Amino acid sequence: MRCPSCRVAFAAPREKCAHCGLTLAALDRKFGFVPRYSRYLTDKTQRLSVRELNQLRGALRLFQRKFPQILFSVMLINLWPRGAMSEYAFWLINRARFTELQATGAANFELLLVIDPEAAEATLTTGYGLENYLSEDDLEAALNAARSGLEARDFARAIAGLE
Description:
The chain contains 5 helices and 4 strands, in the order H-E-H-E-H-E-E-H-H. It has 163 residues and is of the alpha/beta class. The chain has a single domain, classed as Roll (Diaminopimelate Epimerase, Chain A, domain 1). A 4-stranded mixed β-sheet has the order 1-2-3-4, sandwiched between helices. Strand 1, helix 2 and strand 2 form a beta-alpha-beta unit. Helix 1 (24-31) packs across helix 3. The longest helix has 17 residues, at 50-66. The radius of gyration is 15 Å and the shape is globular.
């Protein structure tokens, strides 16, 4: 894995980054309480219509039926000025537990897309269990597939483009 703050690679999981010292406890202080979220799709920005929310939740449920070992969740949230997108996604996937509380470490097969519409940023991160199967290049390619929707601020199209 790579540190979500300084991007230095190290063997996961570790209590803190050996390079910059980042810890989950530091991110807890930075981001506060885990926001209320839904298992598949949470729109804290209220940018998606009810129809879009329902369609995307249906598509994400279908994804899970096709790949039951993976839970793909999406969070739309305005982060600024709280911090870096990669740090937030790392913190959220480790603290929110979109699947089960015991899904930690190598048992965490979550895939999380975080979109910040205000900052026009998105990041895709995996739980530790998926790191051996999805490379950073794979995640970057998936984000590139969503790029046109993100640039057009059509977040429903961007999310659907990742499936």
